[in-house]
Amino acid sequence: MPYQNNLTSKERSYLEDALQMENLCMTKCSVYANQCQMPEFKSLFSDHAKAKRQHANEIKRILGQTNSQMS
Questions:
Q1: Residue 45 has pLDDT above 80, yes or no
Q2: Distance between CA 47 and CA 24 in Å, rounded?
Q3: CA dihedral 58, 4, 11, 24 (to 10 degrees)
Q4: Longest Cα pair distance anywhere in the chain, in angstroms?
Q5: Hey, which of 3, 28, 43, 46 would disulfide with 33, CB 3.0 to 4.6 Å?
Q6: Band of the pLDDT at 1, cuts 50, 70, 90?
């Protein structure tokens, strides 16, 4: 899906903050998954970490597109 890459500085800042939050959540979920004894919880945290990784990658892609267009 193409994005309009004319982001304002406020939008860019929001995306950068969102990326940090996604990375933090992904890290925490990975740690929790490694600490879990119950397979159901281990799977739940692992799946959530994977979803957060996908979100972070999408945000990076959007920010990367705007970086390359600004150059």
A1: yes
A2: 15
A3: 0
A4: 49
A5: 46
A6: very low
